[in-house]
Amino acid sequence: MRRDPLIALRPWETPEVTSWGRLPMNAVDRRGDALSLDGSWHFQLLPTPHGCSGEWTRIEVPGAWTMQDLGDLPQYTNFRMPWGEFPPASPAANPTGVYERSVDIPAEWAGRRIVLQVGAAESVLLVHVNGRPVGISKDSRLAAEFDLSDVVRPGDPATLRLTVIKWSDASHIEDQDQWWHAGITRSVLLYATDPLHLADVTVRARQDGELRVDCQVRDAAGALPEGWYVTGALGGQLLVQDAEFDRVNAEDMRVSDFLGEVRLSATVRAVRPWTAETPELYELTVRLHRADGSVADTSHHRVGFRNVEVCGPNLLVNGERIFIRGINRHDFHPLTGRTVSAADMRADLVLLKRFGFNAIRTAHYPNDPTLLDLADELGFYVVDEANIESHDHAHEIADDPRYLGAFVDRVSRMVLRDKNHPSVIIWSLGNESDYGANHDAAAGWIRRHDPTRPLQYEGAAKLDWAGPSVASDIACPMYAPIEDCVAHALSGEQTKPLIQCEYSHAMGNSNGTLADHWAAIESIPGLQGGFIWEFWDHGILQRVNDGRPAGRAGAGLYGKGVAAPGHRWAYGGDFGDSPNDGGFCADGLVFPDRTPKPAMYEHREIAAPVRLRYCRGVFLVQNRQHFRSLEWLNAEWCLVHEDGRTQTAPSVLPGVLPGSTEAIAMPFPLPEGEAWLTLRVTTARDEAWAPRGTEVCLPQVRLSTGVAAAPSHESVPGASVEVDGEGRLVHPLLASPPVLSLWRAPTDNDEIGGMAARWRDWGLDALVRKVVGVDREGAHVTVRAEYATGAGIVRHEQVITPVAGGLRIEESAELPEALDDVARVGTVFETVGGLDVLDWYGQGPWESYPDRSAGAPVGHHSLPVDELFTPYLRPQESGGRHGVRRFTLSAPDATGLAVGLGAPSQVSVSRYRAEDLAAATHHDELVPRPGCVVHLDAAHRGLGTASCGPDTSAQYLIAPGIHRWAWTLRVL
Ligand code: GAL
Ligand code: MG
To answer: Which residues form the Beta galactosidase small chain/ domain (predicted)?
Structure first.
């Protein structure tokens, strides 16, 4: 067999080779007129790039082979490379996929320039057509184009062979925290143009209506023909050719025989500027004409008129200091790995809009171009990030001249592709790659090519948030504590906007203190927001019986965050992958099926466009937006009384300018005692991301007049309390008596942050109760127990008194000084089976915790017990409700029990004991108990975000010393 020159060169071990035969990147969108080559291709997987051809099978394009049961499975590592070779080497065992298919080249393409576009291939792409080597490309997240005009014949079939090598020198700079996959992950297409064509179009559109369109023109023959010209139209308005540009070019003798350059311009009067709140787009058509006026090429663009600038410590869009309510988003899908359809991308962005997000960081690579189209259309500010992360060998690579070309190539090609999107407001040089000369080189390229946008790179700014930097105009740290951000903003030394590129790590039950972050951001100039880490939990749908990814056959085999029976959400290690980083890839605000986690509701309220305040008898509505009035919103008042009554009435939102506050009339008389007033805000008309009537936010204020009558707890003469020989309450509806609980099934934050290990060291996960006294005094029973922990003895006392209709239980627990950080202090008991519905008065309806309770309004809520649970991928503490005043647990015949709480408390009702959850690694291992496990917590530790970043703040920790709480238990 003849040696293949593309293989013989070993390009997968040569970082200097970023491409061969590849066309320059540009912003002319050819998808519209193209021939799609998506679908089924012939495929074989070789053990190495040198492997001999074997059996052909079939593969779906686009689609990673790691998700299609073809013998090579996904592997998850955070930053460590999956193998030990140092850059630029890769392992000898190197799966190599060969994709092949025949294409009928349309006869009408005769005389045209024929181009193949491969949307994304991971990690090295070799292209052969009709047996001839055509090209090489690297960068798994950008398209590669090859001119096939000389190797195919219109009217004849052509054989395309795309060879994809999994591991390479490029893997070392694609070491992002995500699953390792391989294959062709975005669409493949073929298109034809006239030999005379638009090689690139650059659109600059400013907030004041000034439009500038720079066109580059080439001819496949080399020399440009005489008499070509370009026209442009924005809607009905014709653009004019910029004579000054032509004159300067002519004087500078820049006019070229083979590169035509034209500048068109226009001034749009009364322009409607683009912002994320008002994503106004205009249609631009650019036409390239031959001398006879016929059209040789056309390019369509959607134009958004906007400015972005950094002004001292402020990032301004159209002159306004905006807030960045951002999220980091990977390309992810539980069935296809990295291949994400346009419908999926739209669904992602629609969901983000509905939960108040206005910004996306394309962590950590340029996304499918459709994502930016959608961001332009739906309204998002985008930090567009280059596909560079050399995490494991960051320091060695940042200054390695062999990788210099790759850095500049990746950054420049991203900019060339995405420069016309109004949504892109900031370029990012990549992620977690240390900082070196290779970054400055790439930054230099951008500075020259696109002076209209700021640039950021966390690695360049992290050691000195204020220092001048070629590579970052933004101080964009990750996981900085709130105090540090506040101190910087107040230091007087801030020189750049402070916008965290990652914060509030959403792993498992997390995002504690999000509201505290925002309280600081909104009150301190210089702080402008950040990007939550991250959107998705990267759980892959896996069949439990054979451990394979379900792939596309798994469509519909999940819902409400949970995999169907026989399936589970796989994380690192579940495919036998080694090394792996376990569940660290499950750190998103949505489950793998895009079901929002409760933290999304917290964000929605924090990001609410409308705020409600009550101040000395006056209700105030504030418009929290930057550019929009409140006209697009409807509202309804909802008054929740303590006694269970709820009144509603429609409301008209006042015309409030962005950033301003106006008084609003409340239709109800002020109630006596405690009540809660909510403004239920919905969309007043259809929005691109929400039909009319979609709930937008639920701002709420507490009203309190007079003093609420304290409930009376007269003991009932003659009644008695039954306890067993160990002093444990005996009650017909309790399967297990109320005892002290100091532990929760560790959250991911608890585990990774080290708290869970301390709790285990102290023995809190397996407390042994020792009764030290049971005293009866009249109707009261006083039970004293002790629990020995590794940090001293905890003394617990229960005084149980019969009261009208039931029992009152007053408890106290004394925690020794050394027991200074427990998960909870409270009571746990279990009910008999059959009590399947929880009705409660407190915060809800979704899960909330002490440091994540800003988005759960107080009300009378009701849910089946099974729906209280939140199925975090690795089972852990979940389903808690904050600020609960009372609840009932009932059977369909309305029998059951009622619990009243002396003070608003953290309550959880679940089918699982904490130890059940802690013992399970995935949901398919959990077996629900027939009864309910009920926790009433006098104190519950905040969630924080310690799995990556700061723990909760001190105010949400549980102090040692004496804790007291009281509750009543009645039978319904
Ligand atoms: C950051 C990193 C992300 C992810 C995150 C933790 O350091 O940029 O890619 O690893 O931490 O989930
Ligand atoms: Mg990393």
So the answer is: 715-970
Which residue among the candidates 389, 432, 642, 674 is catalytic per the annotation? 432
Report field, pTM of the whole predicted structure over 0.90: yes
* Same domain (yes/no): 403, 531: yes
Q: How, if at all, do strands 792-803 and 359-361 pair? A: unpaired
Nearest CA to ligand 1 atom 6: 948
Give domain status of residue 187, yes or no: yes
502 a catalytic residue: yes
pLDDT tens track for 394-408: 999 999 999 999 999
Residue 363 alpha carbon, nearest atom of ligand 1: 9
Please report which ligand is nearest the Cα atom of 459: 1
CA dist 481 and 843 (Å) reads 27
What is the arithmetic mean of pLDDT over 524-537?
Answer: 98
Q: Which residues contact 419 (CB under 8 A, 6 or more apart)?
A: 27, 202, 203, 449, 450
Q: Does residue 556 lie in a domain region? A: yes
Q: What is the pLDDT of residue 706?
A: 63
d(CA 80, CA 282): 45
Residue 739 predicted with pLDDT over 90:
yes
Domain end point (choices 193, 222, 238): 193
574 and 530 fall within a common domain: no
Domains contained in the chain, number? 6
CA of residue 948 to ligand 1 center, whole Å: 8
Instruction: Out of 91-95, 245-249, 350-354, 838-842, pick the least confident.
Output: 245-249
* Residue 587 CB–ligand 1 contact under 6 Å: yes
CATH at residue 114? 2.60.120.260
Residues 883 and 819 in one domain: yes
The residue range of the domain holding 580 is 539-585
Taking 50 as the threshold, does the pLDDT of residue 1 lie above it?
Answer: no
Tell whether 847 and 750 lie within a shared domain.
yes
The active-site residue, picked from 502, 605, 642, 877, is 502
550 and 533 in one domain?
Answer: no
Is residue 722 a part of any domain in this protein?
A: no
What is the pLDDT at residue 250?
87
Mean pLDDT over residues 153-175, rounded? 98
431 in contact with ligand 1, CB cutoff 6 A? yes
Dist. CA 371–CA 682, nearest whole Å: 26
Percent of the chain with pLDDT over 90: 93
- In this prediction, residue 823 has a pLDDT band, given cuts at 50, 70 and 90, of very high
Q: Is 502 in the pocket of ligand 1 (CB under 6 A)?
A: yes
pLDDT at position 356 is: 98
Pair 297, 365 in one domain: no
425 and 453 Cβ atoms separated by less than 8 Å? yes
Q: Work out the mean pLDDT of the chain and round it to a whole number.
A: 96
Sign of CA dihedral 364, 370, 371, 373: positive
List C-alpha distances in Å: 307 to 72, 358, 381, 659, 917. Answer: 47, 17, 12, 20, 51
Provide the CATH number for the domain around residue 932. 2.70.98.10
Q: What whole-number distance in Å separates Cα of residue 472 and Cα of residue 362?
A: 17
| Residue whose CA is at the smallest distance from ligand 1 atom 4 | 177
- Compute CA 511 distance to the chain's CA centroid, rounded to the nearest angstrom: 12
- Please give the pLDDT value at position 714: 72
The CATH number of residue 372's host domain is 3.20.20.80
Q: Is the CB of 394 under 6 A from ligand 1?
A: no
In the numeric block, which tokens belong to residue 405? Answer: 């070309």
Cα of 577 vs centre of ligand 1, distance in Å, is 20
The answer, yes or no, to whether any atom of ligand 1 lies below 6 A from the CB of 78, is yes
Average of pLDDT values for 304-316?
Answer: 98
Q: What letters, b where the CB count within 10 A reaches 16 and e where it falls short, cover 858-892?
A: bbbbebebeebbbbbbbbbbbbbbbbbbbbbbbee
In a domain, 645, yes or no: yes
- How much is the pLDDT for 707? 57
Instruction: Please tell me the predicted confidence (pLDDT) of residue 719.
Output: 80
pLDDT attached to residue 710: 62
pLDDT at res. 2: 58
> What is the token pair recorded at 690?
């929400």
Same domain, 250 and 348: no
